[in-house]
Amino acid sequence: MFTGLFLPLLALALLVVSIDLALGWLFERWAGPASMSSLLLATIMFPPALISAFGCCKLFLHLKDRLR
Could you give the C-alpha distances from 53 to 29, 44, 66, in angstroms and in order? Predict the structure, then answer.
């Protein structure tokens, strides 16, 4: 039971963090490195990363149900 609860939550957390880092990196390259601090940028990019991660999970579940 612990593994069944812990591993999906860990995967979701890693997905959110990786999307957050990717969005932050892309925005920093687009806006310029001196425009904003990294911590502020990561804070701003966290909600879109969270929404993207839940969207990816929902799409995965939809496709999984469709293949059955």
Answer: 22, 15, 20
Domain range spanning residue 42? Answer: 2-67
Query: Considering its fold, how many domains does the chain have in total?
Result: 1
Rounded distance between C-alpha atoms, residue 26 and residue 39, angstroms: 15
Q: Which residues of the chain have pLDDT under 70?
A: 1-3, 31-36
| Overall pTM > 0.70 | no
CA 61 remoteness from chain centre = 17
> What's the pLDDT score for residue 33?
62
Displacement of CA 28 from its chain's centroid (Å): 17
